[in-house]
Amino acid sequence: AQSVTQLGSHVSVSEGALVLLRCNYSSSVPPYLFWYVQYPNQGLQLLLKYTSAATLVKGINGFEAEFKKSETSFHLTKPSAHMSDAAEYFCAVSEMGGSSYKLIFGSGTRLLVRP
Amino acid sequence: DSGVTQTPKHLITATGQRVTLRCSPRSGDLSVYWYQQSLDQGLQFLIQYYNGEERAKGNILERFSAQQFPDLHSELNLSSLELGDSALYFCASSVDGVYNSPLHFGNGTRLTVT
User: Fold this and answer.
1) Span A56-88, pLDDT tens digits
2) Strand pairing class (A109-114; A10-14)
């Protein structure tokens, strides 16, 4: 079964600093990977997805993620943090079983941005 | 706005009771998913429907059931509620339920069992 592990339940950065949120996956087949963001009192919103077309994936709000097969990683980065980036971020891998498909989510990383 | 509508936003009920959560998917989406989010379990997949048919089951308790209606809206029924069922319940939809189609989430229903 596929799974994802997010290292660090909380990450704190200063405004303007680099954001790095870590995600490692476990998959027996080439994975489809996603990053979602959850703002307070809201549902999850898709940031970006990897579907094997390119290893560097650009998403919304200046975020990007790089797929590294050798490291089984899909870390999320943003060059310069903004106060509005404070939220919880979830890495997810798709899992197929017969005709069904679902997303398996990591435990999430809460990003805190200090002024 | 994801286009996925969930009602009610909040629900407070007592142990032993039964509640129904409702979800309207994005226009054109055929697949509906239910997830439970709690502090100790994180985001747990419950069940998936595609065009009215159940496609996959996850960690859904026997006390819980769901269905997707011909107009594609879905309901999640929770019965014999326990304190541990208190959580945020999300509905998500996708166009076709295939592996690289992103899920679009509603804002959730927060269930509090007292």
Assistant:
1) 999 999 999 999 989 999 999 999 999 999 999
2) parallel
